[in-house]
Write a structure and sequence with these properties.
2 copies of one chain form a homodimer.
Chain A: H1 29-36, H2 64-67, E1 87-95, H3 101-119, E2 141-146, H4 148-153, E3 184-190, H5 193-207, E4 211-220, E5 233-234, E6 240-241, H6 253-257, E7 272-281, H7 283-286, H8 291-298, H9 335-338, E8 350-351, E9 354-360, E10 366-376, H10 383-393, E11 400-410, H11 422-425
Antiparallel strand pairs in A: 1-3, 1-4, 2-3, 5-6, 7-10, 7-11, 8-10, 9-10
């Protein structure tokens, strides 16, 4: 709990500014402002309540990294279209035996209040741990979803979307059920690891007696400013990852990623479906390949993500191009060929992953890979058809292992005064 | 391995600049330069070899976060006095059965070459994984140390410093031997998680057949720019942590932290001893305390680190100050009272920790706390006497648990053309 005897003051004029369009990444106008602060321009500014007490005397201004913030209220929940954050937590909870619809509604109300406050850089409503004290919101986002089991436990079976039907089994799956599924799913992302951990603890405590942690995973992406190439992330295989992601500027983006406002079921209006896969990378095997062999597996240049058929990262892949011997330049089983949206009936998903590294097995094998999170209006037209194709003949499949899986219905954003899922729980 | 068919070019004029004095933290002159780059001032600069090929066309300049670099060569090894980094890996290796002094020397030579290159933002000497490609050095430091067992295995028992004698048992220790000790210790820190992981994999591969990973731990600190209070870190208990750290500007800093140039043994000249403890925080218990009760445990204000006797974070603690009832304001068993250097015969250590969070136990208890790393010229005058006192009556002890421990001799920095430990291995 913040110490109330210390006057409330903002630590930086930056904190309450509107978020920028970069999702907290790249070098933004706000970084310019933040840096200007080093010369004293914004030091000592005050006004507005941030919830935490003033920082000590030697405080220096936050840069954009700390001061950028996402908005909790909106048409969609946060954490879907924002830029990748440096730190992420995924967690699933199961409702406890005694908890039903009423307790779930109260939980989602608590969670929404906490998310709104923390995303604004304020303290948690109850018993704040102070771990995020004197940091800015750091682009924190908190996103909530419902799993298949939630609807039975709350007597809301009739409201369960058919899109939540269990994913088909894939032959390459090696799923750990204890780290899969769950009644409730929470995604936390932030550009500061302590801000993210602070949020995770607050969310866990809010669960109280209503829900119990089922599984939890930690991930990361690049720190803002660490790379000169902020558009596409690199994964732990060293590949650019997400080159073909649909862009919000594309005319069919909303249709592919979000349930329409006329949503079916109605409570999913402006929502989306998240497929979550813990994909272990078999790095010891992968790293034995030459760069050329790795590029043949992916179908793209490792250095800059350009298709093997030529051009740069954004150049369309020429699937028909052949070499002097008549062999396709982009191999038939290349990952990028198989996942091309125009070869999958227009299927598209927005990939928004975190890398993970949970140490090493006893034999020195890294337990590392991708916390794959993808977003789509309909998993049967997004993840499923693509994964079916990959399952049949993807050259990458021998270097990865799907170890956990989840599918969650993520309702639209809460309006002011509303909590996430209210239209389901009080519909 | 970088793709040699793409022209070598710097992605930013920032990369080759000298490191700044903030250790990559705070808002520096270089952040100003980096931000200026957003207006195009430094875009497209070239010259100098960075080892990675040019980033794709939409490259934007690195900010200080990415471009700051530490120096591998110097009087001391890197990673001791630099500011805390956002991501850290600690790893211990044991020499394999067939490896002796010769293999150890070759290993330290490989490791030194890799550390020098990666810290400069270049690719690893062999089979680079590309995971750090198009990121800057991001204040990467790589630090090497020798454990007690190293000297038996290499026939160098006579060179083993008495300071490496095993630490005494403390009554509160609950040490996991499998995650303690080790022949060789490597500390990696960087402000970008992928840069740190890239270094860890390169170091692991360099070990080859000479050494095998014994244990490995991941940690984190705040992201540069996320906090308005960069001087002192906050830990996962929400406390400012490191307030009383000796400062390089203090006249006795070197004497306390580093072995003298006349070192005994000679090969440890300008070296230091690292005590490493995995300290689990019992957060479920800690967070049940009121803020006032937590502050009595520590002896300092949670909000700003000021002593309970008054002032601000830097105000000396008044140990004699009493309240109206004659009770000490700073309780006798307060952590900050017991650890006061002037009550411990001047014992001082430089604490440079990472927080850690390895998920949750099955009952929802967080496996989180501090990867405590402290540096001193002599553990018997640094860590040991302080820990002895804490072991006897520290109010904090019931909220923490030491789960792993290591003590390592970290030789001085390598001169140009030299490798770390050369004076030991070829002495």
């Amino acid at each position: 709990m913040p110490d109330q005897s210390v006057p409330q003051a903002r630590t930086s004029a930056e904190v309450a500014q509107a978020p920028d369009s970069t999702g907290g990444h790249g070098v933004s106008r706000r970084a310019l402002l933040g840096t200007a602060g080093a010369t004293g321009l914004v030091l000592g500014a005050s006004g507005g309540a941030v919830g935490y007490a003033a920082a000590p005397a030697q405080a220096t201004p936050l840069t954009s990294v700390g001061s950028d913030r996402g908005m909790f209220h909106g048409k969609h929940q946060p954490g879907i279209t924002e830029g990748l954050q440096a730190r992420g937590h995924l967690a699933a909870f199961d409702l406890t035996a005694g908890a039903g619809r009423k307790e779930a509604a109260a939980l989602l109300r608590r969670w929404s209040t906490t998310a709104e406050r923390l995303m604004a850089g304020e303290a948690a409503p109850h018993d704040d741990t102070d771990v995020a004290r004197d940091a800015g919101p750091s682009s924190l986002t908190i996103t909530f979803g419902f799993g298949h089991g939630f609807f039975d436990r709350t007597g809301l079976e009739k409201q369960r979307p058919s899109a939540l039907d269990p994913l088909p089994d894939f032959s390459s799956d090696r799923l750990d059920k204890a780290r899969s599924d769950g009644d409730l799913w929470v995604q936390i992302g932030a550009n500061d690891a302590l801000v993210a951990f602070h949020a995770l603890r607050a969310i866990q405590k809010d669960a109280g007696g209503a829900a119990r942690l089922r599984w939890q995973m930690n991930g990361f992406n690049r720190t803002p400013g660490a790379t000169a190439h902020p558009m596409t992330a690199r994964n732990l295989m060293g590949q650019l990852d997400g080159t073909r992601n649909p862009k919000p500027s594309e005319s069919d983006f909303d249709r592919r990623i979000f349930v329409p406002a006329s949503g079916d079921p109605a409570w999913m209006a402006n929502g989306s479906y998240a497929v979550v896969r813990r994909i272990r990378m078999l790095l010891d095997d992968w790293e034995k390949l030459s760069t050329a062999a790795q590029e043949a597996v992916i179908g793209r240049r490792k250095s800059n993500g350009a298709p093997l058929s030529g051009g740069d990262e954004t150049t369309p892949m020429d699937l028909e191009k052949a070499d002097a011997k008549g062999e396709y330049i982009v191999p038939l089983n290349a990952h990028a060929r198989i996942t091309r949206p125009d070869k999958n009936s227009g299927a598209a998903m927005l990939r928004r992953p975190f890398s993970y590294h949970d140490g090493f097995d006893a034999d020195g094998t890294p337990d590392a890979g991708l916390l794959f999170v993808c977003w789509q209006a309909d998993p049967l037209r997004g993840f499923v058809p693509v994964q079916r194709k990959l399952d049949r003949g993807d050259a990458l499949s021998q270097f990865i292992r799907h170890e956990a899986s989840g599918l969650f219905a993520v309702p639209g954003g809460a309006a002011k005064g509303e909590y996430v899922g209210q239209r389901l729980l009080e519909g």
